[in-house]
Amino acid sequence: MSKTVTVTIDGRTIQAPQGSTILDAARREGIHVPTLCYTHLLPPLENCRLCVVAVEGERQYKAACSTSVADGMVIRTTGPELDQTRKLLLELLLDTHYGDCVAPCSVTCPANVDIQGYLALIRHGEYLEAVKLIKEKIPMPATIGRVCPHPCESACRRHLVDEPVNINHCKRFVADFEMKTGRRVLPEVPEDTGHHVAVVGGGPAGLSAAYYLRALGHGVTIFEARDKLGGMLRYGIPEYRLPKKILDWEIEGILSLGVRVRTGVTWGRDFTLDDLKKEGFGAIFLAIGAWASRKLGIVGEDLEGVESGVDFLENIAAGKPVRVGRRVAVIGGGNVAIDAARSALRLGAEKVTILYRRSRKEMPASHEEIEAAEAEGVEIHLLAAPTRILGEGGRAAQLEFIRMELGEPDASGRRRPVPIEGSETLMDVDQVISAIGQYPMVLTKEQDPGMERIPITRWSTIGGDPRSMHTGQEMIFVGGDLFRGPMTVVAALADGRKAAYSLNRFFQVGEVQPEPLHFNISKGDLESIDREPFEVYKVIPRERMPELEVAKRVTNFTEVELGFDEAQAHREAERCLVCGCSAAFDCRLRELMNEFQVDWRDQPSKKIHFQRVAAIDTHPAIALDPNKCIRCERCVVACRVFQCSDAIDFKDWPRFNEKCVSCGLCVDLCPTGALMEKRQGRAVERIHWRSVPTHCIQCGCGCEVDLKVKGGRLVWIADGRDVPPNHASTCSRGRFRAYDDQWKEKRVLKPLVRENGELREASWGKAVDRAVQGLRAVSEKYGPESVGALASFHGTCEGLYLLQKWMRLGLKTPYVDFPERGAAEALVRSLALSGAGFGLVPPLSSLAKARRIFCIGAPHGTSPLLGTLMRRAARNHGARIVRVGGENGSFPEGRTQRLDVEPAQWPAFLCALAARLIQRQGLGSATDPIQKLAEEVIRTADAWSVPSSLEGPMQALGEELAAGPGGAFVVDGTALNGLSPKGRAAAFQALAVLATAAKGNGQVEGAGIYPAFWGSNSLGALLVGMAPGMLPGWRPLDDAEAVKKVTEVWEAEALPSKPSADTLEALESGRLKGLFVQESRHLGALGKAGSEGLRNVEFLVVQENVAGPALDRADVVLPLAAFGEQEGTLVNQEGRFLGLSRALGAAGECLPDWEALSRIMAADGTPFPQSIEAVHAEWKELLPGCGEHEWASLVREKVRLADVC
């Protein structure tokens, strides 16, 4: 039992293992100590010093990551001085950290929508996911996509290249896609919290608050004075800009969450604030908008024919009779003025003129609306202010205005208009529409006594906190125009969400808490940012919004802007420069900045010149931005100590050298965005993903990896947890090739059937029927042994089991096989003959602790993780490596001995080496299985000769092995598969003997056999019977008891006997006329038989996820779910049960292998287990040792065969 010491941390007395660090002890007790450079995978770095703690009796703070606990130690992990020290350390890091946490467009957006994120999703074709992302901040994207003034575009860095990205119209595209498909994107409403909020006002702020409150589980009732919800969206924005069917659809979506509505009720007339409280509402959100129009303050504005723009637009929207004069003057320069002018034109006005007292530059209306108005014939008189309205018969007849010139800027920042004396001008009018501004109609205390406690500003708005939206009085919140004055719809929507967040926090903790501010660093605004990096971008024209022709729109209220098509949306989204850091959502530095409330000082950080960055950012798979590097050195130490590649040189910032194997470990350990995955030449945009652990299928290691998924797309792949089999190590294949296989290869998405010489799309039913009929026809014509199956060594155990069962039970053929079967079967048979079974195959991680390694072939090429583990053993434990043939690898010089042995000579070499060892020390008693195997190995060694050049080295190796136990035998199983059956058997038998001697009494770390296979499930395929001479459970087909057991479980009369010829021989000779092939791209592993044997096949069925070489000859093609699209079981090359997770929906009409086989067996009338669970139940009866365990626990706990068989 390990010794412990007593320590006190933050007043808590605990027991901690002797030798553990303060950080270990604190984390074990759930005590938070901030860290940045620390990772449990590496020795303490102490570069960031953020983990410093105060130790009683010590004058200086101690690094918790490297200071060991001592008995009686008293530790303090927090306090004002410690927090201030950590804050100062973080501020110092900013001196060398230059970049943008979040894209400037998102920072500028009043709702802080993740614009960069949804543009990335549009590029990926994930339109509904883009809508989902938008709705995290604004609930009405189709509406806002039509009416937003898009301030985000003014901050777009694309200005420095050509024109800003057309952000708003991309947003509208995905929102319209949602509506057209009818697949509403709505949050799941949790269980009712019991809290109820009254929302007064059904405009954008009120609707937004209702949406987010319901998404949090709170009850909501909207009180609306008008007949319908929408507020200014319905009554202030014309139909040609915002069709009401769009607005209605989005409102219906909000109400579908369970929002209650009372229309036709007015605050102050029908209810008061106190009434709402008495009714049981726990909080009130006020959002009645700004409906009162400001007066012109000139003579004649009370004449008939003079009205406000708000009233004019509302009457149109409400369907009331609206009289329009022939000559209409509109006063104002905002969107209300533009809307009124364009609406008047549509209602029959012959001439519409807008008068605005400032210049065009100062007009608050969006420039697109101004241009559209002019295109339709609206005249705009700038620097003109009305002075009086003249009437005839009580009706407006003339408008007098005066010319203006711009003086000094006023409080708004716009230059103040100054009248030009004597410039008065008259114009004939018969209608004047005033649109110079609005303000809220705030109730008085006489109208509602509760208003006595509510703060009123001098702008006739209700005061409150702009972050929490709380008025400061009881539980009354405010938002939208009632709080801000007449502002934008997007700002009102943002207010509603902010209020919902604050209300939720109050309901949870009993006090108003606004949404936390997130730390953001910026490279600067458009004026101050370095322009050189933007010179490399190509000029790409901005996509223009298609519009209804002027002649077709000016006489009606049909929507003018027609919307982007898919191609336009894609092209426009591609123009995004991805300014925001792709690591913003998992940046450890940013997390700590938020935790310690560090403010970004408004001064540019030191930056590395653009050309120097470009010179070193040359890695094909990893993007390097040294401007974001904080010099923690995690990457270089990890590469040196954990990966042991020495691929990173570090001087001021990391640089990759030629030793890099692209494992991606540095990317996962980088606490900022300095190192990121690269796709299509730029860093991956991680967005907000979900993480799905699974196991890699790129080789037999079966490394645990994390699939980072957004919607239906794999975004990137990261190292898994520090758990078996790989303990957080990966390689380039698992990290990058697995992604490329998924998204760069040509996928097979639909069933195909060959008709008249061409493959044509078909239904699954038709394809399955054709497959069954075709193979049955071949069997009837040539006999059962004319049909066979070549499975994928990446297939799931479930699918492979069903495939061999269908072949044996349904088609009565013994020909079931897969690439690498020869080597895998030789390994399994040799392990069985040794008597130790999989006890001779240690866990992969043990290889890193070996002191003596024999590397046969290039197993590190087949399974790169083995190369990492061998290098780690040499570096950290001084292991000596003996290379027996194979390609050169990056192994330590001075600790590696190379023997030039050709693959054909490996069996003879290994048998001779084993024979010398046996002759020196012996192995067990004469009756032990291993002794019998050893005798067989000696006989083989005597029969084969070894080149005389190897006698000396072999003699020395034999003496070294005999001197004491120890020895890891790492063998390239894929290379051995190319040898003859006799050679494969001899090699693995010799390895079994050598491994038994190396293990000694079983206490030698790292000793044993480490096979390397390309197939992620080669051992699993054998385990479930995917071999012509082997039944499920590794039982030989000539074992009568095994045959009896299988026939009982399958309820079969008999099983086909062992075939007279090997599968490959039968294929090459033309005996196999009907063939079922999985993933034909792997047929190359079969050599000549795989590449040429298909020529003799008369009927070919292939199950493919990407287009393989057999596609051109196939009669039926069945689309196969790819990595990440199906669940199932693997058995890796160390004999460990591993689970595959389904992280993505299958592309197209692809099906998991086991589901497709189920359909085939059903069509063929062959009995089959009806579910994965039923398959597992059959296995429990057929697989020795496994029947005592629940299959789910075998996979969940990653049990090894050595522990159950």
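(the above was protein one; protein two follows)
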Amino acid sequence: MEHNNIMNAKNFTSFATRKRIRERDNSPDMFAVADEDEDAISSDKEAEKVDPVSNVNRKTPGKDISNLRHQKTKSYSATPPSTSEQSPKRKIVLSSSFHHENNNQSLPPSDSKVSGGCSMSSLRSTLHTNHFGLNSRMKEALRSGGLDSTTFQLSSHSSLSGETPPVYTLNSSNVVPSQTSIHCGANHGLSDGAWQAILQTKGIKGLYGWQTQCLNIATKTNQNLLYSLPTSGGKTLVAEILMIRELLCNQKHCLFVLPYVSIVQEKIRTLSALAIALNFSIEEYAGNRGTYPPRPRKSKRVIYIATLEKAHGIINSLLELGRLQEIGLVVVDEIHIVGEGKRGATLETLLCKLLLAPIGPRMVAMSATIGNIDELSNFLKAEIYTEDFRPVQLREFLKTGDQILEIDKRQRGAQENFMKHSRSVSATSATNRKNDPDGLSVLVSEVAPEHSCLVFCSTKKNCESVAKLVSSNLPPTLQQWKTAEKLKLRRALEQESGRLCPILKSTLPFGVAYHHSGLTGDERQLIEEAFSSGTLCCLCCTSTLAAGVNLPARRVILRSPYIGNTRLTRARYQQMIGRAGRAGFDTHGESFLLVKPNELTFVTNDILMAPTNRVYSQLAEDDLRGLQQLLLSLISLDLGGKDLKTLAETLLHSTLLGQQSSRQSITTTELVEKSLKSMMEKNLILHDKDEKLAVTKLGRATLKGIVDLDRSKQLYNDLRLAQGGLVLMTKLHLMYLVTPYDMVGTVVPIASTYFQAFNKLSAEELGVARMIGVNETVMVKLMSNQQQKIERSILERFYLTLMLNDLFKGESVWNVSELYGCTRGDVQNLLSNAASFASCVYHFVQELDEFWAFSELLLPFSRELSMCCTSELIPLMELPSVAKGRARMLFKAGFRTLTDVAKTDPDQLVARVDHLPRRVAQQMIAAAKVLVYEKADTLIEEANSLLELVPRRQPLVPLDETFQTQATVTLPPSYACHVWLTNTKSLVEYHFGLSLLWLLYFVFQFMMPLLERRSIVASWKIIIPEGEFLVEFEHGTTSGKRVLWINGNEYLRKEWMFRLVGSENFRIGRFECKLDVEPDGTFGLLYSLSINGQDIGEFQEVNKKRWVTWNVDSSQGGRDTILFEKDTMDVWLNGIKIDCEAI
């Protein structure tokens, strides 16, 4: 089918453009795809019958891009390809007509045919397919006609002066970006300098083969990516390279989502050196750190490193403000968490909103092996890369009695040859055999002290008892190993909390310690650093360590096939043994699972030979709490509709729950209906006057504060009650309001302790207690164990508040834990959770005007509570993973500020701070530098923002009749410096002062309008399934400024001095876009836009876009026109060029 696109005669097409068209049309078909369906009827010969779009008389600013391809999700694997026969490649080409306003061409009649034999009426019907997924008619059209289901409508546009931009309508069910839009070089698109910086900071010489292969795939396409490898395969490095590429090449921010606060802080430390080398920023979003929305950054690109919950808040705030386009890439580590309880529902909600966003960022997700990775990739609309690579060999053993059996992973599934006898191990003496019947100490001593060993225990109490058991049965000679380092570690632990745990005191000399949540954060960090540096050789820990910070070991021992009273799963088992033999630390790794004879059957069947664990959506669990949170977000942000039917469709097609609904016999409509009813009962949503769903003020506050939906009403009522008699003479009242609801029940109140703490309260504090409902009568009944009228939850919550109050007054963690009957870790966890919840309550009250007073009080109190220390330590506690203990050590060593740490060197830091490994010192200095630079950048950008508020210059007014034409900006008189624009006929005079203040005033009054004026040189209006988008390109031809605006929002900005031509790549929805800037041969420029490799339309630079004009009242009457040409810096008066001279 031929298409004649007529060009208006006054439009100009450059030689370069014509050459590009010829090259494109003569090149091989870029839209050939592999179709594995034997029923596909479009063959190479049939595709060749379709004539290419004619190049003759191309008059419109657009070109035919109707053959955008439909592409299936690709799956990549490093395993050898199958040798089975595959269907030959088929070219799928769809050709259609344009409707042009000038020549009255219209679409072909409904009975006309396109390639594959499908009629246009059939095509039109497929174009109305819901964009959430393919319905049966679309599938039928694709199978019977080989179509792409894509059409375009184009209206003419010759210039930008007051005319509507061209409209390009793209209707496609599942169009994916072109894979050829980004050129990938030897360094995966990065410069040699950036690449060397990565290798040096990571301490590596190159990449593994699978990493190179995965990066090649990721950099040749802009699709989402999901890749899966065993633990210790090097997954994180690939994601970090992709983020750096996004920062440096695409000039977009990145969001790195991690599961735990400890991992967030570790990642900030490890990336800080790279941030300094490559000049980007890092911002922490964990606990109470991070601001919503993130501060706009113009000078530097940023990696936001966040926990799941904080990442949710970032995306919500950016979506609400229309700033999501600032994020170019979202990386999610441990994506399998989507199948784990409440946090899994939070993660699925986050991913769903990113998928539904009109201009959403690219997503890269990684995980260990997942059983149903195809379902997860369909949910994420991602390509898959899988590999069974492990850089260090791992040997698995099973110990039952004295026998050690080796597991042959190659025989997994064949029970007969699955395990073979390796050797026998028993205690060296009768005493040891009695104390240690499992021979655990023997397994540890085989590798200690030269190599490290992790012993995973089922409970916290078991960790402590096993640490004592192992240390008491190890050879006494181990006490001579690294004696000086152990003494420094002991001294550092004592300085942290004022005393040393008796168990650690007895085990540390042997290089043994325990590690669980009962330790304070500083204690855990000191022990982790000692283990990593080799000071400690054995760590007895709970299973949470396997999912936390990176602590590699030569040998891993699983003390029991249980976690608490729950049987170990295959996924958790793989996670634990994955700590053995980490690359860069050991040449090989070993794991031992200790089982009793009666446990052997279930261990073999349910752990060792079990299939890989599958991931299941958690949205419908826990009384639909996760689903309600998702629906509330979608309604508030208008992402998935505002009625029952549309929300049910969104749930079906855009969530993992929807992907799994048929197999789990779930009806999405029923789930949505039930959830909406529950939210209405909670006063979170309502029907507006148009019968559409809308979010109430309480619902919006709940979203902003990331508050549990079931707690939002309770929080509101508590705030209302407190507002009537808020006591500010003490911090106790505010402390009660921010005591986390979900911590109630974690510490059981001790009646005598409660009574003692109550009696120590001051008069003001007693007033707060009575207002809450805890009075003397309650205390008497509590001591006598009588029934109470007050709710038990209030009583327990106030008990936690008293613990916070003691900490706030300076009591040590040790004293509070002993007094209130809990562990040190519980006390510190309460403090950090309270600070985090205070931040949530602050954002909650900001949405409710009636709580304006709380808004002013909670922000500083949240920070005060999180530090809970003397003021001089607060700056040092901004460093990642530095709590009060280490901050105190730094302060005593003479480091008082972040700048002090930033400007020192690692040797000085190691020498002056007890037990600080050099690697940690280097990371700490780098993190301090990043924070100092970030503060400086923030101040500079805040100053620039303030200067932008300076009023624009006043209109030019007549000043004197001495000259023919004279005008001035309104400035204070009597300054010695003048700028004159003069010739024999006229003079334009501008006064400004010599002082820096008035110089700045002059720049922002007069020059900034010249520099900041939006010089829109090209504009396109595009309609795609995600919505209607106005694309505008601003080009400063003198400054090199390039700004891309989408729907009035700044999407991309670059300041490339002296670079006028080139291209910019960006994405709208699922479409890969490219904007080219080329010379037109007449000292002007041509601007063209292409989508998925096909040209849309072009604009020629209009001369007046290079000019700025003023109309000035003349002293002789009438108006004079002064014109300033920005490229040549020439000045014209009433059409006559005048000489310019600076005096």
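Reviewer note on protein two: Residues 223 and 848 are 40 Å apart (CA to CA).
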